[in-house]
Give the backbone structure.
Amino acid sequence: IRELQENSGSHIQVQREGDVPPGVSPTDRIVEIGGRFEAKAEGVQIVLMAIDSMPALQAPRETQMLIPRLLSTPNELQDAQEMSGCEIEVRELPGHDEALCNLVGTIEARVKAAQRFLTRLEEVMQDGSGALTE
């Protein structure tokens, strides 16, 4: 993890097994990636590529990520699918401001989709209104 942090400039933290919101499998591990926008975007790519380089039987072919519920609208999902080529499914998590997003596709498509959500979140936060453009 230290090497991934140094290569990306981001802060990467892996949560303990079982430390997940309701609706997420307790055997899944959550990886938090923080820092400046550019560092987070690089961190997402480096972490997903590192996981993808695991031996074939261990490497997942899908990526789950928590996204703010306001980014789980049909328009946002369609935009992310079209620009990434990734299949995206979303499941609401009752009682949470996040939704569980399942990204299925090549590693390149999953990285693009994850970075798209990160970019949209950054745009919404900079706007300050919390509103999304249609």
